[in-house]
Specification:
Blueprint (H helix, E strand, L loop, with lengths): L3 H13 L1 E2 L35 H13 L7 E2 L2 E2 L1 E7 L3 E10 L4 E6 L6 H11 L2
Parallel strand pairs: 1-6
Antiparallel strand pairs: 2-3, 4-5, 5-6
């Protein structure tokens, strides 16, 4: 997504976006202030494998994904339904954030499953915008 108008709109949204987190994706709640405390659910991707335990880091990745234009075409009240980012640990880990509250522009995120073929594309797009 290289449309200058769209990228400018995403830059503006990136300054207004919020990160909430979801207790179903965490064992370690870090400083997310999740209520109830972290309670991972079977079948949910755990954020812990990406070692993101600080809300500030999660928000930074969400903002950077928006600035790079890694967003879904689907919008809800002007907010992209999904935003993607990548974090480097011992390997590159693609992340997906999902809009949970469009009134506040609030998202929660999780690592993409390795079996998801779109995960490779997210990494390629992320690296293309370095």
């Amino acid at each position: 997504m290289d449309n200058p108008d769209t990228l400018k709109r995403l830059e503006t949204l990136s300054e207004e976006v919020h990160y909430g987190g979801n207790p179903e994706h965490k064992k370690n709640p870090g400083d997310f202030g999740l209520i109830p405390p972290a309670t991972p659910r079977m079948g949910k991707s755990l954020c812990d494998i990406a070692m993101i335990f600080r809300k500030k880091e999660a928000l930074g990745l969400l903002r950077e994904g928006m600035r790079r234009g890694l967003v879904s075409d689907r919008n809800v009240e002007g907010w992209p339904r999904n935003v993607w980012a990548v974090i480097k640990r011992d390997r590159l880990i693609p992340l997906e954030a999902q809009l949970e509250n469009y009134g506040r522009g609030c998202y929660h995120g999780y690592p993409m499953p390795e079996s998801d073929p779109f995960a490779i594309e997210v990494i390629e797009r992320w690296e293309a915008h370095v």
